[in-house]
Amino acid sequence: MAKEPRDERKGDWQLWPPSAKVQILLIAAVFALVNFCLLAIWAYVMYRRFG
Predict the structure, then answer these.
(1) Is residue 21 part of a domain?
(2) Has residue 5 been placed in a domain?
């Protein structure tokens, strides 16, 4: 039996269902977004307190 050719461009980076690499990227993106929001809140509080 011959193997079917695999599309190398999509193989590890398929969006749905998310592959392992995409899951890591999604987790990192959510983590970065939460950190950015916390930084924005902290900057606003510091500006209101000392600005």
Answers:
(1) yes
(2) no
